Amino acid sequence: MPLTTTGELVTRATANRSAIASFNVITLEHVEAVIAGAESVHAPVVLQVSENAVKFRHGRLLPLARAAVAAAERAAVPVALHLDHVQSDALLRQAPDAGFGSVMYDAARLPYTENLAATRAAADWAHAHGLWIEAELGQIGGKDGNPPLDAHAPGARTDPGQARAFVADSGVDALAVAVGTTHAMTTRTATLDHALLKRLSAALDVPLVLHGSSGLPDGELTAAVTGGITKVNVGTALNIAMTGAIREFLAAHPEAVDPRGYLTVGREAMTRTVAKIIETLGPVPATP
Asked: Domain 6-281 is in which class?
């Protein structure tokens, strides 16, 4: 079916009191697994390509984006394409022609005033070109090998009052909030600041997004949705599933040289992970 948009799926999730699952993809196997997992539970899904994934692909956005669009258009459930953690304005400007309906513009590393100015400019450009835009306030650590911030470090949590002003002044459509998760966690031991999430949900009238969700156990994921999160980003959980399955396959088949064997089990493991996460969040209806 035709590509849908992240904005449409988030709106649908909000009406359903659920959250749309958004999975970061790196390879074609990731793309296929995310779609297959969503199809298995009859739920829509978002495919996310991060700026880091683009760098891995020699700085070229189109090869993976074109593959994702082609796979999405043949899916049995609605699929949206989202460009994630964009810091490069040049990459932002490639999004519409590459098939993306939304972008997460990431200037959270900058001081507040600079973050706001950069995000306002990005939002103006995005809206002029038909893109739904997400931003981040507070710092969700763990990207690029950096350690997570201490819970009490300045900027480690999103302040509700500051967030309200930031959303109003930047014009963004959704906000990723720092409430206790960390990117690239390989253990599911994170705990959310539920009191802060409740305050943020009450303070803001835009959808709230949770990054670093791979580190949360099922109960915390469910509580995040109950607390007001309507878009949940997942990346590392897929990589753990894929890598673990490939390791097991190669240990059992040391003679294997054809990548189709181990990529198949890796893709199947990711598919199961996708289905389980969507079911944990509460599937968003495939039709409005």
From this structure: alpha beta
